[in-house]
Amino acid sequence: MIKRRILVTGGTGYIGTHTIVELQAKGFEVIVIDSLVNSLSGVLNQVEQISGTKPLFYEFDLCDKTALENLFTIEKNIDAIIHFAALKAVGDSVENPLLYYQNNMLSLMNVLDAMIKFKVKNIVFSSSCTVYGQPDSLPVSEETPMKKPESPYGQTKQMAEQILSDVVKSTSLDVISLRYFNPIGAHDSALIGEYPIGAPNNLVPMITQTAVGIREKLLVFGDDYNTKDGSCIRDYIHVVDIAKAHVVAIERLLEGKNKSNYEVFNLGTGFGFTVLETIKAFEKVSQQKLNYEITSRRTGDVEKVYADTQLANNELGWKAERDLENMLLTAWNWQLNLKELKLK
Ligand code: UD1
Hints:
The chain is an alpha/beta fold. It has helices spanning 14-25, 43-51, 65-74, 90-95, 97-117, 152-170, 203-211, 239-254, 275-286, 310-316, 324-341; strands at 5-9, 29-34, 56-59, 80-83, 122-128, 174-180, 182-184, 218-221, 233-234, 236-238, 262-267, 273-274, 292-295. The structure holds uridine-diphosphate-N-acetylglucosamine.
């Protein structure tokens, strides 16, 4: 049987690598594009250790339209694209807005142009709960009106969704946008996980790096929010659950089960945890005290957000399976294993 071929942009990144493993487990052939600005190509050897297959890899920047068109000329019969590739650091996007707009928007537009030119119909887009800003009511459903995003990064996700929803009206493209809440955790094998280049921005890599002694202490950004213990609330979701949702979305498109040519689904657990609860859960699974200190709020943080997951559960037919402790345990095992891996 001919394997269905999926092009994964940003495939050497955190969610990309986990998604490749799940795609391969379902018999898909995967082709990866990545510019390696924020990841290492060596992670594909780790993918191979898990799945037995190393995906085909092309290193270039999606802003390079000629390189992208060359790829489509060489690699025929691509059935669908998962578009992860993007810059994603909220604080960095405030410092360098033009870089974020240029990179995230141009790469998406080049991908869409190439899809139209080379007749690839299906795309799953990597969106984010950041498109909701601070919502007026919780949990947030896909129908919740979007607010102005807190950062240029968030703005690029909102603009990308706008572009996609416009493009489907005049083309035959089918699009699913997946709005991730807070992906954390790592593969059970501890062979792939989140690998921040430089200082991490996100909570869980900060926690595990502090616990392992790379950082002296974790700073908790604010304990004066209107929440049960004053720290912010997020809907943390296991990266393997997120990866599986991409496979379900791809199958939905390939089997023509989508109800419209632009669909959006929230990917969360539906449960919110505070930063301090997350630290406590980490201390429990790692059986050690974490050195942390409360400091002032971080600019751009929303107070609380968690997902209404009904549409993803009932219509997409996907549900998050892992709990917070499993997320933190797998993240911890990955951090401990990193010393052995010597990634390049
Ligand atoms: C945000 C976006 C998310 C996006 C991600 C990309 C929202 C609601 N979410 O996630 O869509 O994909 O950025 O990076 O806009 N914290 C600390 N100390 C730290 C780090 C974080 O206390 O050292 C706290 C933050 O204040 C926040 C929570 O931990 O309350 C989670 O932060 P983080 O992991 O950075 O993710 P978000 O900012 O929620």
